[in-house]
């Protein structure tokens, strides 16, 4: 604070400083000694603070403003408080009122239009043209402009499953070419062409497999029996698998531990210990001897032996080549049998090819292995003879169409068979008895 | 010998496949999104031929996709939408967590959506492609439209499915293209012929759902999403092909105007329109009035030989079809409240019948029970209170059997309280020599225009014939119809022989000129004989190998016939036993 004040003083004491109040010289401002008062009291602020300069400045400002507005306004504003009724119009308003008896001249420009003649003519011409039915160019351009679809945003946000959605002829209309193919491709506006191979179906099975005639709600006796037999066979197969599993899991009843065997086991090693050890030791020693004998030292071959071996080798090779030659010569005479053998071979390959093809065809109708799980066919829908309804009203539907559709999708290799994800609890559940229960129990 | 060592699994089939997880990572999608994308785009997993090679030496079962397919998926604009949707869900969750409801609303408003139109166009480049694949779409839509609106899937989806199925049924009615119906224990199978394509679909019975737990509803919903779009576009095209207004409108000047008064009882204004449509009782409005429609005439081409025969067969078939289309025309049906209304109304209207029901059952009934002009009342209960004398009271199975038989069957077997004849599957096509149930035989006889009075004898005759076939040689099969002529010939021959004998013995013959009998040459018979002769010669000329094969085939056929005969005999004994039982019961 003190520093600031000092600065102010210093600035004021400079010779070129102009105060706002020309009467007061900067020198006496600084030199006059002020009475010292406590400045921490509000009372003293009001009494002793020197607000004159501020007030003067404000006055100056007001004066300046009014000077700009009008010269007459300068005097009455001088700070006097208004007395009397407020209903009287202000003097300033009176002054500003128009008091001349001569009417102000008419503003000619307000009634004149620049280029009026030209405009009139153009309007007339336009009218004529309109009567003829000619549309002006500007309007034409407007009309030709492609209409920005305001509703496009709305249709975009329309959900896919909106029940009121509208359809159009998707196959009839040609796709509009929006521009150069290169441009479209680069800006990702053009869709990539779908490979033809993707339109092949992964299975030859029909989409809807109609249930066997025995599945009628009021079936013919024999077709019903046929269906029952099939269902029975399926069940038999299942039972067989189950039985097999059980058999594999079965154990010999005699192997179960009785008290006696348990006791024997516990005592094992305590009785007759010494005898067994001796027996064990004996074979060990034998083994060591065998191991020692196994290391054999190979003798070095003599020069003579080597030479003889080489000669034998060459001789053998010669013999073989000779034999091959004679064989080839002989084949000339065997042409017929060779032909037949070739024919036979071809036949077998053809048969094999046919078989393979048939197998492939059969495979096409089979569900493939597409994931962890194998395809499990659905349980057969069948109603036993006593379950059959006499009339349509009493019919109790068997099986579910939903399941049928789902399995059909799996069977046709459209989706892989899956299991429902099992819920796994990561953290243990802690059992806490609530206090309210605790009190009772 | 030099060169770099080849690395394993860097060429060949290992590079053609990609595992599901890697594909998913490549597309930066979560597993459910990936699955959805694959279903929508029609990209299915593929089982490689050599799993071990593809799986880099491991034999663990994995799901593989073709790498090229996945690369194709990378260009799909919907992938971006899936990612956007993920962000949307995250934002929504956050807003919920902070309980900023205004933010929730704002985020909800900007929910990203996508259209499948371009996928439909891409997967089905022509309309016929789409029509061939419509079976699945129909099944799915019919299934979803029967779901309860309890949150197993979106209510909107169910409504859309319902709308599409109603549109489809109305189309089938308008085009009269239904061919077969089969009531099974699972659901009702329908088959229609639309633009030369046989389309089969299955509709579950109403209210029969117990939701199975081991079905992935999300996958099914995705399929439905695709199929609803497909079905919508297809039905638009079908409607325009018949000059019908799409979305369908009821014909306002039709004579069977549904009553207006009691509409408010059934549905709100917004829904009543669809309800009225789904009642199936009124015809649809056309763009061009139906008066100037022409019957399409089959073009006649000059042709010879086999083509002629084929043409004739085709013409005959067409005629039959035309007759079938007008099966119920002129008949007036009334459905009692206990019969499945929608299915029956659909079937009746498909063949030109008029149908109505009680006012309180459904909207859109056109006449009351008291209408004197009703010809058939469909009923499925043991007895009725008041009966009108000028109408038949029959069980619903009659309608379905009539449709499958393509003729109006005698109503006697389907009267009230009568044990119904079995409902046979029209989807079974018997080959030569298969066992045919007697009911079907009877039906076939009726179709041929024979009277139902002598059916019993006829059956027996046919059986006899079959028996003969078994014993006789193949080539003689054809001429066992006219044995009398044979006998005549034999007699003549005997006469001649006698004369020869007499002459050889040197006796003078008492020659007489007798008036000659005109020998009527049966042309058809001659033709047959010629054919049989040709066949026999052809058999004789066969190579050994072919002959062996032929014999084998014939043996198989004979065996089949034998089995069929056995079954027929069994059936007969069964029927006799039943009859005896009934007689006893009566006594």
Automatic annotation (TrEMBL), chain A:
Primary localization: nucleus
Biased composition (Basic and acidic residues): 309-326
A GO BP annotation: rRNA processing
Protein name as annotated: Ribosome biogenesis protein NOP53
Family: Belongs to the NOP53 family.
Gene Ontology cellular component list: nucleolus; nucleoplasm
Subcellular location per the Swiss-Prot or TrEMBL entry: Nucleus, Nucleolus; Nucleus, Nucleoplasm
Region of interest called Disordered, as start-end residue ranges on this chain: 268-330, 343-371
GO molecular function: 5S rRNA binding
Protein function: May play a role in ribosome biogenesis.
Biased composition (Acidic residues): 270-280
Keywords (A to Z) from UniProt: Nucleus, Ribosome biogenesis
């Amino acid at each position: 604070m003190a520093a600031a004040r000092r600065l102010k003083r210093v600035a004021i004491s400079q010779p070129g400083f102009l105060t706002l109040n020309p009467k007061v010289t900067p020198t006496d401002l600084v030199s006059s000694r002020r009475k010292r008062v406590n400045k921490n009291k509000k009372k003293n602020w009001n009494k002793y603070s020197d607000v004159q300069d501020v007030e003067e400045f404000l006055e100056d400002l007001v004066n300046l403003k009014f000077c700009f507005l009008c010269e007459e306004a300068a005097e009455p504003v001088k700070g006097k408080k208004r007395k009397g009724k407020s209903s009287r119009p202000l003097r300033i308003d009176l002054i500003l009122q128009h008091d001349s008896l001569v009417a102000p001249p008419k503003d000619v420009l307000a009634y004149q239009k620049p280029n009026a003649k030209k405009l009139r003519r153009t309007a007339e011409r336009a009218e004529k043209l309109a009567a003829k039915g000619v549309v002006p160019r500007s309007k034409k351009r407007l009309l030709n402009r492609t209409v920005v679809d305001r509703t496009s945003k709305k249709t975009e946000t329309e959900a896919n499953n909106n029940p009121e959605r509208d359809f159009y002829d998707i196959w009839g209309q040609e796709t509009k070419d929006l521009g150069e193919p290169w441009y479209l491709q680069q800006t990702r506006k053009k869709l990539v062409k779908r490979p033809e191979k993707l339109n092949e179906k992964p299975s030859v099975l029909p989409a809807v497999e109609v249930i066997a005639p025995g599945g009628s709600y009021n079936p013919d006796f024999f077709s019903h029996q046929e269906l029952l037999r099939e269902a029975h066979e399926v069940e038999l197969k299942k039972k067989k698998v189950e039985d097999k599993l059980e058999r594999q899991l079965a154990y010999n009843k005699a192997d179960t531990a009785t008290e006696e065997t348990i006791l024997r086991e516990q005592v094992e090693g305590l009785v007759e210990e010494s005898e067994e050890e001796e027996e064990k030791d004996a074979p060990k020693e034998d083994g060591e001897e065998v191991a020692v004998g196994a290391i054999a030292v190979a003798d070095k071959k003599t020069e003579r032996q080597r030479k003889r071996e080489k000669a034998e080798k060459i001789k053998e090779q010669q013999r073989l080549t000779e034999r091959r030659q004679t064989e080839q010569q002989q084949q000339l005479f065997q042409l017929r049998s060779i032909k037949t053998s070739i024919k036979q071979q071809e036949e077998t390959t053809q048969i094999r090819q046919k078989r393979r093809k048939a197998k492939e065809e059969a495979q096409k109708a089979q569900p493939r292995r597409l994931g962890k799980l194998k395809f499990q066919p659905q349980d057969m829908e069948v109603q036993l003879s006593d379950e059959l309804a006499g009339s349509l009203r009493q019919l109790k539907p068997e099986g579910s169409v939903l399941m049928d559709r789902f399995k059909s999708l799996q069977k046709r290799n459209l989706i892989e068979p899956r299991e429902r994800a099992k819920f796994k609890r990561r953290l243990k559940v802690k059992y806490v008895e609530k206090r309210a229960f605790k009190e009772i129990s | 010998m030099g060169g770099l060592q080849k690395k394993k699994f860097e060429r060949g089939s290992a590079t053609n496949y990609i595992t599901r997880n890697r594909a998913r990572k490549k597309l930066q999608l979560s597993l459910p999104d990936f699955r959805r994308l694959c279903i929508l785009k029609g990209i299915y997993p593929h089982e490689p031929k050599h799993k071990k090679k593809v799986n880099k030496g491991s034999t663990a079962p994995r799901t593989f996709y073709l790498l090229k397919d996945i690369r194709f998926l990378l260009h799909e604009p919907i992938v971006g939408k899936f990612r956007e949707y993920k962000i949307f869900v995250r934002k929504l969750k956050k807003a919920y967590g902070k309980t900023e409801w205004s933010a929730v609303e704002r985020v909800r408003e900007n929910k990203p959506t996508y259209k499948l139109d371009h996928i439909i166009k891409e997967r089905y480049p022509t309309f016929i492609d789409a029509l061939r694949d419509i079976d699945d779409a129909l099944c799915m839509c019919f299934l979803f439209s029967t779901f309860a609106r309890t949150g197993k899937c979106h209510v909107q989806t169910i409504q859309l499915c319902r709308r599409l199925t109603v549109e489809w049924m109305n189309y089938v009615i308008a085009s009269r293209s239904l061919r077969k119906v089969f009531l099974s224990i699972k659901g009702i199978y329908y088959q229609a012929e639309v633009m030369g394509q046989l389309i089969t679909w299955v509709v579950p019975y109403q209210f029969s759902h117990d939701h199975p737990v081991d079905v992935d509803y999300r996958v099914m919903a995705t399929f439905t999403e695709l199929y609803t779009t497909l079905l919508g576009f297809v039905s638009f095209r079908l409607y325009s092909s018949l000059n019908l207004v799409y979305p369908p409108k009821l014909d306002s000047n039709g004579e069977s105007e549904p009553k207006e008064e009691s509409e408010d009882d059934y549905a709100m204004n917004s829904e009543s329109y669809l309800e009225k449509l789904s009642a199936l009782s009124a015809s649809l409005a056309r763009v061009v009035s139906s008066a100037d429609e022409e019957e399409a005439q089959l073009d006649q081409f000059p042709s010879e030989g086999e083509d002629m025969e084929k043409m004739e067969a085709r013409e005959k078939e067409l005629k039959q079809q035309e007759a079938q289309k007008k099966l119920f025309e002129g008949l007036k049906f009334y459905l009692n409240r206990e019969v499945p209304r929608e299915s029956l109304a659909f079937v009746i209207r498909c063949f030109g019948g008029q149908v109505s029901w009680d006012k309180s059952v459904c909207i859109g009934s056109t006449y009351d029970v008291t209408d004197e002009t009703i010809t058939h009342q469909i009923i499925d209960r043991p007895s009725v209170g008041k009966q009108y004398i000028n109408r038949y009271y029959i069980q619903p199975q009659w309608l379905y059997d009539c449709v499958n038989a393509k003729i109006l069957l005698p109503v006697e077997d389907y009267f009230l309280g009568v044990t119904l004849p079995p409902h046979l599957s029209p989807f079974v096509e018997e080959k030569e020599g298969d066992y045919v149930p007697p009911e079907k035989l009877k039906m076939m006889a009726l179709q041929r225009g024979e009277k139902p009075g002598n059916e019993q004898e006829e059956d027996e005759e046919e059986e006899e014939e079959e028996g003969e076939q078994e014993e006789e040689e193949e080539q003689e099969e054809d001429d066992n119809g006219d044995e009398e002529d044979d006998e005549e010939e034999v007699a003549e021959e005997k006469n001649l022989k006698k004369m020869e004998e007499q002459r050889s013995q040197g006796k003078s013959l008492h020659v007489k000129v007798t008036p000659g009998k005109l020998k009527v040459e049966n042309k058809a018979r001659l033709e047959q004989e010629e054919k049989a002769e040709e066949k026999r010669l052809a058999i004789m000329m066969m190579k050994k190998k072919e002959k062996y094969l032929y014999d084998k085939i014939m043996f198989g056929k004979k065996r089949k016939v034998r089995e069929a005969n056995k079954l027929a005999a069994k059936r007969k004994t069964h029927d006799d036993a039943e009859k005896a039982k009934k007689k006893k019961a009566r006594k």
